[in-house]
Write a structure and sequence with these properties.
300 residues; alpha/beta; rod-shaped
């Protein structure tokens, strides 16, 4: 309970000086006239919505400069600290070096590494008398190097071992030749192809793999070994006919040049017997045989 303050009454402050009893009440005047209540004791029971004293409401608003927002959106450094600029510069340098390294790696793979990923060429000859490496159960090569095709030369030699004219006997002989060559330190069986009796043709190292028969010719020739010792053994016609089919196939697929030259091993490596006199006397079956230097071939 409180009493009005001394001074002019509400009626006095609100009365209109026109001789009328009508009083106009001003809300601000009423509020000013009302005394402030003084609360000494306040009891609150079981209430969670009571607030005593002034209440402050904090409103936080993040305002970004419009140009900064635009700069972030466009990826432009319109507003940026020095540290941020240095960081972006470092990232740009890193990206440039990464592109240079990636380009160099791609060039290396294309011109250096990928050529070494070549595989043995399948010549596509599908004849019952032609046996690929899987057909004669060849052991894996210890290593291989590849030839630059097409090649200008064919070398004919012989194994100087047992003659064969049956499929499985010839497979045994070719396996023995491979084992012997591996024991001697070769990467694989020496010649690119082998020819047994009855015209059985075996894939040796293959059409595009560096062979081993005559050192000075290995990189530029296809080597063909007749299985047997043709100082005493006599070749049959099927061996020459099927070898001719093999050579025609190699020309057609680009392994041999069309005008390649064919030699007996003793013609390019004088004072040797291979391929033996019985084969040498029949090299005329090959149209590309060059009969030079036959005088160096030994007869024994």
């Amino acid at each position: 309970m409180w009493t009005p303050n001394d001074g002019n009454s509400i009626e006095e402050r609100g009365r209109v000086n026109n001789g009328s009893d009508l009083v106009v009440m001003d809300e601000r005047a009423i509020a000013a006239a009302m005394p402030v209540p003084n609360v000494a004791t306040l009891n609150v029971t079981k209430s969670s919505k009571v607030h005593i004293g002034p209440k402050f409401v904090s409103v936080t608003q993040n305002v970004q400069n419009a140009e900064m927002v635009k700069g972030h959106f466009l990826g432009l450094e319109l507003v940026s600290s020095k540290q941020a600029r240095r960081l972006r510069c470092s990232v740009a340098v890193f990206v440039c070096w990464a592109l240079i390294v990636a380009t160099g790696l791609i060039i290396y793979l294309i011109y250096v590494a990928l050529p070494n990923q070549q595989t043995r060429l399948d010549i596509g000859l599908n004849e019952s008398w032609y046996l690929r490496r899987d057909d004669w159960q060849a052991m894996p090569a210890y290593g291989q190097d590849f030839l630059q095709l097409p090649l200008p030369t064919v070398i004919i030699g012989h194994s100087a071992a047992n003659y064969c004219n049956q499929r499985y006997r010839c497979i045994e002989q070719v396996l023995e030749i491979q084992q012997n060559h591996l024991r001697r330190g070769y990467y694989d069986i020496g010649p690119n192809f082998l020819v047994g009796g009855n015209g059985f043709v075996f894939e040796g190292r293959g059409a595009n793999v560096f062979g081993a028969m005559v050192t000075s010719y290995n990189r530029r020739s296809i080597s063909i070994m007749f299985v047997g010792n043709y100082v005493t053994d006599v070749p049959d016609l099927a061996q020459f006919n099927h070898t001719n089919i093999l050579l025609e196939t190699l020309v057609n697929i680009g392994v041999l040049q069309p005008n390649y030259s064919l030699y007996g091993q003793c013609q390019v490596n004088p004072q040797t017997v291979s391929p033996g006199p019985h084969v040498m006397r029949n090299l005329h079956y090959f149209s590309n045989w060059d009969p030079v230097n036959t005088s160096g071939c030994l007869q024994r």
